[in-house]
Amino acid sequence: MDTTKTGTLAVKRGMAQMQKGGVIMDVVNAEQAKIAESAGAVAVMALERVPSDIRAAGGVARMADPLIIEEVMKAVTIPVMAKARIGHIAEAHILEALGVDYIDESEVLTPADEEFHILKSEYTVPFVCGCRDLGEGLRRIGEGASMLRTKGEPGTGNIVEAVRHMRKVQSELHVLCAKSDDELMAYAKSIGAPYELVCEVKRLGALPVVNFAAGGIATPADAALMMMLGADGVFVGSGIFKSANPEKFAKAIVHATLNYREYPMLAELSKGLGTPMKGLEIAALPSSQRMQERGW
Amino acid sequence: MNRVGVLALQGAVSEHLRMAARVGCEPVPVTDAATLLGCDALVIPGGESTTISRLIHTRGLARPLCYFAVQKPVLGTCAGMILCAKAVTESGKGPEPLGLMNITVERNGFGRQVNSFETDLSVTGLGSLPAVFIRAPYIKTAGPEVRILAYVKNRAVMAEQGTLLVTAFHPELTDDLNVYRYFTAKIQPA
In this complex, is the C-beta atom of A295 within 8 Å of any C-beta atom belonging to chain B? Predict the structure, then answer.
């Protein structure tokens, strides 16, 4: 009897567990993907444009051209992720058909649906979603996300929003786990989270999926900071290939993420990296340009 | 109490530490040679084999690991199995294996993530157990001193050579302790 099952919770969440302690890098072509792989990235995110360029270009940002995704898939042996617009069921099916290893239902792209997210439990391919707080994270897990990440503010090179979101999730986890069982329904209601998942978090004393940091990581110190705040790993978008020396930056961020408590090593890694990507002040961004406010 | 080290560079480290504790051993995260020497057995976890391999070499852990493996039990799961191998097919840009066990392995041997699966696996001496395969490798060739313990889809996915044990799947992602008990039974009483 064949008992083989694909797309199970263990298979989908397990894939993200194998990425822990690692760095996932945004790339726009095969050449960048190879640089990322040889620097020690645990996966790459294949995109048409990195977030800071999406920001600069304006207009509607969509799923990348499948040719770019296939080019990246051929170039490396590490997992390849790709982004679908929030609620864009068709883009998600197309990415699954291409054979990508993970889909990011991402606020970096222009949302296709301003009310509903993708029902991610219906797919064999696993999904990662962004969240700013525990309620948002548990709603995404409820829809079938197998991995979470902070939203941060993508393409800004400014870490402040990722810090805010990671702090919020960690602090709400502490609050939830300290509650008695008879308080959980009211707490679930107050944060807008599915009750069953609130109970599961209390039982586990932790989220049932891994939670990475994303959105604004520009230096090795930024990556180390997010790990210190409890991230399981980091996504770096524009930070690497918008810096003066991408190879050096990529390696330094990988080592800083893995050795985030080894301060003398962090000091060495931070030396002479050249100019990091140019950063943006969040307060200077009008609300309409804040990607983190996309998602419901 | 036996001290089971888990190579803590990248990947499913906390899951293995928890499993070691569940079979009554003291779990020890290992990031340097000194800590490694204080362990009675070592687990090389799943993760990205290329990443873990690079870190082993940059941290100067390759020789201490080889030295450890000839004296004490080592369990390699998924990426850990790749690192234990003598050679990896389609090598070059990929991981540099440690050559602890006389096997060659094929990375991502069952396809990409959408082909990842779980199944009830029949293991020699352990019976049927749940096994989770994630972008898993398989054992392509094995020397005469290697004993193959399980097959899936006609491919060898678990093997032992003396006190070395490797699995293409992830025993740390299930509640089944059989693989762990089998592994820790290889530890010599002090």
Answer: no
